[in-house]
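Box S2. Input/output pair 1.
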Amino acid sequence: MEITCAQMDVLLSFYVEGDLSKALKAKVEEHLKKCPTCREKYEIIKTMIHDLKTSVDDREEIYSSRSNSQYRIFQNNLSAYVDNELPQDESIKIKKYTINNKQARKDLEDTYHIRRLMSESFNKTKLDAKQDFSRNVLRQLNPNEDYSFSIHPVLKLAAAFVMTVLILSAITVFSLTL
């Protein structure tokens, strides 16, 4: 049985985390070889994970530079800027700093990219909320294994969102203590 792109959307996160059986892992790898769209999604996810892992090292490098206090102000206000919660004068300062700082531009782009991906994932999951799409996909691909996920997909997405926010907050707090 061939894996469809819709099934790959579900399986990619399990694949990246190494939570697939050998048979499913082989099917996913086969599909990735054949499908440029899914391969691109996989590369984006892999790059994002790599960027998160290396961000702490990058932050240390940035904090040791001359623009230490300006970058901290930028980091502290980034979320509020993206959510349009800053006063106009603060927002203008963030814009000016972003224009003149390559790392700040990258941070802002990454923030918007993560926000867009999370929004797309939430909207997709919201549409599939009436059924546990992940469980059905896994059962179709490997009917001999029992996948008894007891958490509703919307709750899984909410938990993933909360974890992402907590991780990003922890990184920010950690970087501020340097």
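Box S3. Input/output pair 2.
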Amino acid sequence: MEGVEIIEGSAQVDHIHLLVAIPPKYSVSSFMGSLKGKSALMILDWHSNLKYKYGNRHFWSRGYYVSTVGLNEATIAKYVREQEKHDQMVDKLVTKEYEDPVRGS
């Protein structure tokens, strides 16, 4: 889409963070539809083996989260930049208790 600017971006294993500037003539939903649709086609074109895994299913999840940025754009850009470090720290703090399916404990 013409006039869209990617300011910051960060890709994790299971999600992507983007800080983008979208001109007012585009709605957020139309931008997201275009972004998801075109990127899925490009990825499936580059990695043809994924077509067998995602053939008739959706490549991206249906939803997305959007927040508007006002005066605090620098803080949001920093958050996007440092999100991977934050996720790694949280993963180290999380401990899971596994239940034995046979014994139930």
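Caption for Box S3: The beta strands are 5-11, 16-21. The chain has a mean pLDDT of 76.
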